[in-house]
Automatic annotation (TrEMBL):
Source organism: Leeuwenhoekiella aestuarii
Taxonomic lineage: Bacteria, Pseudomonadati, Bacteroidota, Flavobacteriia, Flavobacteriales
Boundaries of every OmpR/PhoB-type domain copy: 124-222
A Pfam family the protein falls into: Response_reg
GO-annotated molecular function: phosphorelay response regulator activity; transcription cis-regulatory region binding
This protein's name: DNA-binding response OmpR family regulator
Keywords on record: DNA-binding, Phosphoprotein, Transcription, Transcription regulation, Two-component regulatory system
Length: 223
């Protein structure tokens, strides 16, 4: 899962990033309105942690930009500005939650997990498709009641395909979502193929498969 933190306080930003990376999320950051605006317009995320008070703009305008673009990222407003008006305005504009500073890291994790469940997995604690069960909290996979070990990239590829199960996912979108913004500098997507190959082997006994559309991308298939 890919998260964008928009926060201008360096220590707070580092603490949030470290906390979420320990939970094995792919985390990207922006510390200014301009940087955040560029990333929101250029990339997709599962969840955005949004500070309202930025040095060069109001975070609520970033929320408006996100909605104007028709994007569906989950948004948690994280701000020391505990104004009721700002909270109501943010929620009315489409934010999923509001977390006032200061907060405990356990609460941050819980809020992020709740938004991801609602946004990507219809609010369910477990993802169940046929004989496949995924526990997003422990990042574990079982197939026909037997645990199957996935590495971080294999797990991220699988859950991204599941969250987009009705869509064809292009190689570029998959690479950017699982490997991050720096993927723009890659010369090719060859590194994806080995991960997909290994994932397919591990799904041999599953009721889901990773299908390919030659030259375009991948799509989740059901047996």
């Amino acid at each position: 899962m890919k998260i964008l933190i928009i926060e201008d306080e360096p220590q707070m930003l580092d603490n949030m990033r470290d906390t979420l990376e320990q939970e094995r999320y792919l985390v990207e950051t922006a510390s200014t309105f301009a940087e955040a605006s560029f990333k929101i317009g250029s990339y997709d995320y599962d969840c955005i942690l949004l500070d309202i008070m930025l040095p060069d703009g109001n975070g609520l305008n970033l929320l408006k930009q996100l909605k104007d673009l028709g994007k569906e990222e989950g948004v948690i407003i994280v701000s020391a500005n505990d104004s009721l008006d700002d909270r109501i305005q943010g929620l009315n504009m489409g934010a999923d939650d509001y977390l006032p500073k200061p907060f405990h890291t356990a609460e941050l994790n819980a809020r992020v997990q709740a938004v991801l469940r609602r946004r990507n997995f219809e609010g369910n604690k477990y993802i169940e498709i046929g004989n496949v069960v995924i526990d997003p909290e422990s990042r574990s996979l079982t197939i026909a009641d037997k645990e199957v070990i996935l590495n971080r990239k294999e797990y991220d590829i699988l859950t991204y395909l599941i969250s987009n199960k009705t869509r064809l996912v292009t190689k570029a979108a998959l690479a950017e979502h699982v490997w991050g913004d720096h993927i723009d500098q890659a010369d090719s997507f060859d590194f994806i193929y080995s991960q997909i190959k290994n994932l397919r082997k591990k799904l041999e006994n599953a009721t889901i498969k990773v299908g390919a559309v030659y030259g375009i991308g991948y799509k989740l298939e059901l047996d």
